[in-house]
Every structure is written in structure tokens, then in C-alpha cells.
């Protein structure tokens, strides 16, 4: 915990499981219910930045600059169309950052230092969500090192649990080395299609294996959710009433509830 901010890393080394969609819409939902939220886009593809309507030409300061130490998080944060939601955008420069900082002893701690250091975000935000690339690389490790917890989106498909053990292994390594307080915030099932029997089987399976860590809220597959980014808007702004937006609002209240339980424990 940092000046009241809860820092949640959204990670899964598989691509296309709903990390970015969850980052954008959970952040928007949290902002809508009164939280002050920052998204840090750590994926060189920059889908979270684009999905929040940040034009590539406007990304003068980005998460790259934060990691190499040019600027503070607060300086790099840009306002979005969502009140109370800011973003530290990403650019393709991030592709090279791993090489650039590989030799630095604090290479895994760059984001942690930026968030907790002298020019920290203290008091500016109540939630920080970090959107990770589809890899367990140095960027993801930086995100885990900086966070209070990890939120894992799993797509409701046959291989949902495949790769999860590797992800949990990485979390354990980060706990053992640089961030002993890192928790597993929860697992959120995404792109659920109730007409598909297999999807129901997957939900049951994941609940059986991961128990209470799995959120009650399941995010449905919803075409409005997939359309929204092309308008540079979170689904919640694009179509508040659609099933996907409603599910993300529900997820936000579950996250807050779980948060209070974790803090009270
Ligand atoms: P990741 O960040 O893990 O790579 P994304 O969030 O970018 O995954 O999602 C992958 C693709 O699936 C995107 O095209 C996105 O629009 C789509 N998608 C994500 N969640 C949903 C959903 N609930 N319903 C429909 N499409 C979705
Ligand atoms: Mg993504």
C-alpha cells in the first residue's frame, strides 16, 4: 500500500485472454464508483493506451520514460475521457527497454522505485492497474515487483489452466526475491459464452482448482466489448447497458469488497 493506493498487476503470459480489456474496463468501473485510478500500460503494443483514446502522436512521455528513469509516474500520467482515470501510455520504445536496462542491478525494480520512490504517486490515486505484455519478461516482473497483488484473467476455453502453473511459479519467485508482500488478487474468467457447454466445464474446472481465488463475476463474451476499443472508448462509456459493461461494474465492486477483506485480515 502506497499513500492509500492499491497497485494491481494484470498478468497472464498468454495473449488474447482479456488482460487489456479487463484493465480498461475495471479501471473505468472503479473510476465510475468514485475511485481515482491510474492505468500503467506496460505492453509495447499499447492497446490499453489506444483503447483509452490516447493518440500515438500524443504519447510524448510514456512508461518507457518511467522505466529508464527520465520522468516520474505523475509527470508521465495523461488524463483520459473518463473522469478520474489517467493513463501512463506505452510506445514501441518499450520493446528495447529490456536490453537497455539489462545490465542495471535494479532492472526488476524500476517501476517499484518509480511508484514508491521520492517522486511517488502518493495521494494521487486510490487504484493503480498495470497492464502487462503477454510474456513473463522483465516488464511483467517489474509490474509484479511494484504491485500489491496480481489479477489473472483466464479465458473460458479448453486450455484455460494451461500456463497458469508457470504464472504462479513466477509470482512465487517474485515473492521469494523482491516482493514478499505480493498477493494473488484473484482470477477472473473472461469471454464466457453460455451457449458453449465447454465454457461451463471450464468455469467449473477453474473453480475446482483455484477455489476462492476465482471471482464470482464472470465476464461474458460480448461484441460491444470488442467494438469499444476501435472508438477509443472503454466499453462502459461506449455502451453502459451491454452485458460486458455490467459485468465489469460488478467485478469492480467485488474487487473493492475483496480489497477491504484483505486489508482487514
Ligand atoms: P490481452 O490483453 O490478454 O491480449 P485483450 O483484452 O486485448 O487480451 O482481448 C483480446 C481480444 O478479445 C480483443 O480483440 C478484445 O476486444 C476481445 N475481447 C476481450 N474481452 C472480450 C469480451 N468480454 N467479449 C468479446 N470480446 C472480448
Ligand atoms: Mg493486452
How would you explain this protein's 3D organization?
By secondary structure, the chain is an alpha/beta fold. It has one domain: Rossmann fold, CATH 3.40.50. The protein is 42% helix and 17% strand. The protein has an 8-stranded mixed sheet with strand order 3-4-2-5-1-6-7-8, sandwiched between helices. The longest helix has 22 residues. The two termini are 14 Å apart. The mean pLDDT is 94. The site of magnesium ion has 4 residues, from helix 1.
Write a brief caption for the model.
This protein has twelve helices and eight strands. By secondary structure, the protein is α/β, with parallel strands linked by helices.
Strand and helix layout:
Elements: E1 6-10, H1 19-32, E2 37-41, H2 47-51, H3 63-68, H4 73-76, E3 78-79, E4 85-88, H5 94-101, H6 110-116, E5 127-131, H7 138-146, E6 149-155, H8 164-177, E7 183-192, H9 197-210, E8 214-220, H10 223-227, H11 235-238, H12 243-264
Parallel strand pairs: 1-5, 1-6, 2-4, 2-5, 6-7, 7-8
Antiparallel strand pairs: 3-4
Helix pairs in contact: 1-12, 6-7
This protein binds adenosine-5'-diphosphate and magnesium ion.
Number of strands: 8
The radius of gyration over CA amounts to: 17 Å
Percentage of residues in helical conformation: 40-55%
Low-confidence stretches: none
Count of discrete alpha- or pi-helical segments spanning 4 or more residues: 12
The computed structural class is: alpha/beta
* Lateral strand order in the biggest sheet: 3-4-2-5-1-6-7-8
The topology string of helices and strands comes to: EHEHHHEEHHEHEHEHEHHH
Kindly state the mean pLDDT as a whole number? 94
Count of structural domains:
1
**What is the percentage of strand-forming residues?**
15-25%
Query: Which CATH top level class fits?
Result: Alpha Beta
The outline comes out as globular
CATH superfamily: P-loop containing nucleotide triphosphate hydrolases
CATH architecture: 3-Layer(aba) Sandwich
